[in-house]
Amino acid sequence: METTCEACSGTGKVRDSSGHIDICPSCLGLGTIKVEETEEQKREFAKRLKTRKPLVTATYILVIAMLLYYLIFILSDFTYHFSLTAFIIILIVGHSVSVGGYILYVLWISFRGSGNNLSI
Ligand SMILES: [Zn+2]
């Protein structure tokens, strides 16, 4: 990462006490200085990525599972012609299973994530 040099405000030149213009000693005339990301910041970033990725995957899986569920549901309704009661029960069970599974998975990820944090 590069930031503007504070000693010369990005010009690369400084004026000494007698008025002479000189190359900035901080950035050697470049006007910018390289700031290395600390190991801490890199680790923090990697950790954030790692904890977010399974959530994204879980959301994709939920969406795909719901689409498959609706597809199978509609197809089987054509075949078996569910009664209204059966229709409602299947809808409610299907949604609670998929959403419940999603919530359990997310909880499991956060528990596993906090476990990792403790071990570091
Ligand atoms: Zn400078």
Helix and strand content put the structural class at mainly alpha
What number of structural domains do the residues give?
Answer: 2
> Uncertain regions: pLDDT < 50 for 5+ in a row?
none
Distance between the termini: 26 Å
Counted by DSSP, the helix tally is 2
Mean pLDDT, nearest integer?
83
The fraction of residues in strands falls at 5-15%
Biggest pleated sheet = 2 strands, antiparallel
Number of strands: 4
- Oligomer kind: single chain
Bound molecules: zinc ion
Helical proportion? 55-70%
Radius of gyration: 29 Å
Rough outline: rod-shaped
Strand order of the largest sheet: 1-4
Reading the helices and strands in chain order gives: EEEEHH
Tell me about this structure.
Helices cover 65% and strands 10% of the residues. It is mainly alpha-helical and 120 residues long. The protein has 2 domains: 2-34, no CATH class; 39-119. The strands form 2 sheets. The chain has a two-stranded antiparallel sheet. A hairpin with a 5-residue loop joins strand 2 and strand 3. Helix 1 (39-80) packs antiparallel against helix 2 (84-119). The longest helix has 42 residues, at 39-80. It is rod-shaped. The model has no long low-confidence stretch (mean pLDDT 83). The site of zinc ion (ZN) has 8 residues, from loops. The site of zinc ion has 8 residues, from loops.
Please write out the topology:
Layout: E1 2-4, E2 13-15, E3 21-23, E4 32-34, H1 39-80, H2 84-119
Antiparallel strand pairs: 1-4, 2-3
Bound molecules: zinc ion.
Residues 5, 7-8, 12, 24, 26-27, 31 line the site of zinc ion (ZN).
